[in-house]
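Margin note: ligand = iron/sulfur cluster.
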Amino acid sequence: MRKLLQYLLEQGVATQKSICPPLDDDAQGLPTLTASACSGSSCSACQEACPTEAISVAGSESNEARVSLDLGCCIGCGLCIETCPTGTIAENRSTQTAASRREDLVLTNETTELTARSIEERPTIFANSLHARVVSTGCSSCDLEIGAAFNPIFDMERFGVHVVASPRYADALMVTGPVGRGMQEALKRCYEAMAQPRLVMAVGTCAISGGVHKGGYAEANGADSILPVNVYVPGCPPHPWSIIHGVLVAQGKSTVGPAVLRTK
Amino acid sequence: MKLTRKQVILEDLSNALKTATHEGHCRLGLLTSVDGTQLCSLVLDPTLGTAEYWETPLRNSYYRSLTAVLPETHWFERANWDLFGIIPNQHPRLKHLLLHEQYKRGFYPLRPQPLVHERAEDTDRQFHFLEVQGEGVYELPVGPIHAGVIEPGHFRFSCLGENILNLEIRLGYVHRGVEKRLTEIPWTKARFVAEAAASDTAAANALAHAIAIESLFELEVPARAQVLRTIALELERIAMHIIDIGGIGTDIGFLGFSTSMSRLRGKALGLAQLLSGSRFLRGFILPGGTKPVSAERLAAMLHTCQQLREDLKPVIAILEENLVATERMDSFGKVSRSLAREFGLVGVAARACGIEYDTRAHFCQGIYPKDAPPLSVEQNGDILSRTRVRIAELWRSLDLVEKLLSETCAGATSTTSSCIELPQQLPPDAVAAGIVEAFRGELIHLIVTGEKGQIRRYCIKDPSSNNWTALSIAIRNNLIADFPLCNKSFSLSYSGNDL
Ligand code: SF4
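Resulting structure:
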């Protein structure tokens, strides 16, 4: 025990000071759209490359070409960024990617300046204390990243967030995974057992839209097909900082941040 | 890997499997079907590093269960009932494994034609737990939603006082239809779904997928890709073993240790991110090779890897030297070697019972079986043994990654590309498998293509499908309070089993 204490003292504080900083240089970020003109359906390289049908390209003339990119379906594989010849799709290194409305995750190259995303920050009663019940319905990497968000490096507890073992004590329900038929009943019951006011956070692309699983016989199409969702955290899995950002959005202390483009 | 195809008639199947696995050196990799009109067995021969694919045509949608002869088939048979409607008559505990009450009766997702007028239609999907009777015996239901941050599953304990008499595990809550989805999409996009089967095992799943696809084409990937794939596979093992060893600390109440481990896991994930851009190595391994990695990144990885080893040493020593911790693990949650063999356990759980089976030593994956690390084996089959196996493997994986990184940095293979182009169309009527030692153990991806080269059947066998039974065995006659720790020491995947 003495050795452990000595070791812990020697290690000092591991916690990162800056909150939700951009991703490290070596990390792959989510895609975003820029003002560079897209050459339209004569190209469509991104749409063909995307494994989750997150992108659609319409219009053929350069000036009419419209791309729409649904971050709620995106698993962040980076293929669209690699294939885009016009620089319309670029990599966003921001970790402030959580949004409180599903529409805000759908980007189009007509509204790249995030015009849609102008919800005001409004501290909620959960601003200083938010107890969360985590219900996993998926493949565990989102759960691991939620776990990591509580480690000494990210230390989500400093924002007043605690994981609780019963919905009775919970303010927020954090859902991970695509919510297939096997979990729908349990998830609903968990939600119903929570006292009001209560929030639902969909953490990860699966929880938002079903991700790679959507549209199958298991009806794994995301949390908002059965519950009202208040906060969406895209990513497959989202970075721990993005999960923390989701919590800050839930607490009314933040909104989706501007893109931080990778400079080549 | 290439598979030798064989026809085995139903009447001979049970004996043939028994001879191969009990008297020979073989093991049953998986038992499934392609479309419900046959049984397919994958028979692995570790000594030769080969595998046979046996096809057994079925006249009806039922046959005599193999479980009584080969206990390791018990979950496969349950899954086959769910997915294909094939009923194993006289199965000692035939229950649904993957599809719950929400699904219509008679719905078999992987059977192309609906089953007409079979007995299968009459069985409901109600799940009946094994009832333990006797004075004072009570049931303790836990889940599907667990107290912590973990995937869902239901545990039904039958207890007398604090003592667990029986544990029945009900899974299937995270069934997402992964195998069906893999037959619906173009194979070029399948890798993303294959990874998501259990994305804490993304690298191993991607590797098994890639090996299966490349074996269909009978193509070899460049040497550099093999090295990078091995590094990815071992990094995944390092990161996950760190979290699993740290998790043991959480369940013992040795929190300073577990927090230190979770901090160090961040370093391992940083290594993964340096290699692939993703903390979970998503998208790094693909059919044909790997994504490119720059020399600078590899050099940075070598440095971090050496640092990680130095950082881990004092922390692991703190656990190993702590008597309270080791005594808490010693002789709890035991699985005997004979039961481990009977149920075909794999991975850490098997090696902790003295079973010397690690697919890296037998089947081609990355640079293996050449240069496979020495086996880490313990004899006691308890929580302590499983933890010790993990610790030994952690050091060995670190050794290996360090060695491979310094060789690559020295430039032996750096000029060649790490990926080759594959043809667009998969070869028709072919079958191939990828067998990989994931951090949990033997992982198998099996692909059967149809007449136009489409994927007819994609079968994934996660190591956890073999090992869930071990948890039930291990916890018998232990206390309820021992369960979390025991469960952690197996560290099983729900999603990998439920698919
Ligand atoms: S990064 Fe997202 S949007 Fe782009 S191709 Fe991959 S999944 Fe699709």
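Chain B touches chain A through 65 residues (CB under 8 Å).
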